[in-house]
Amino acid sequence: MIENIKIAVKYFRIKNYLMKELKYSNRGAIRVINKIRKMKPEIKRAFLVWFTTGQTPKEPLCGVDYRKLLKYRDLNHVSAFLAIDWYARNPEEAFNALSMPQKDICAGPACTSEEEINRLLDKYSIKREAPPENTDDIVS
Length: 140
Description:
2 domains; 0% strand; mainly alpha
């Protein structure tokens, strides 16, 4: 019973962090917490260590270098842990998405073709950037 209370308090603190620090909506924060609850145990453990102590993983998690992922993908810590969990569950899909240049990633159903992506990039004056020369070492 006490353990369940500790877990509930921890998720409440995470929700507050998501909403206050990362500006998530209430609904968005709840969605992220549900994803955190479903994380693979070793990733969830590393996430909770980071959340409670600020210590980031030094060793790769499920074959992904956490620090390099943050650096090359410009993710916040929560998004990086979620990306690693995604990679652990669906490596091919996650690797393909994470290996794209940052400006090429387009969310939403409208982005279904290269032509549509180019149209949106032009519309918002976004220039395509080359990916870092070598990102192979993000995933070992």
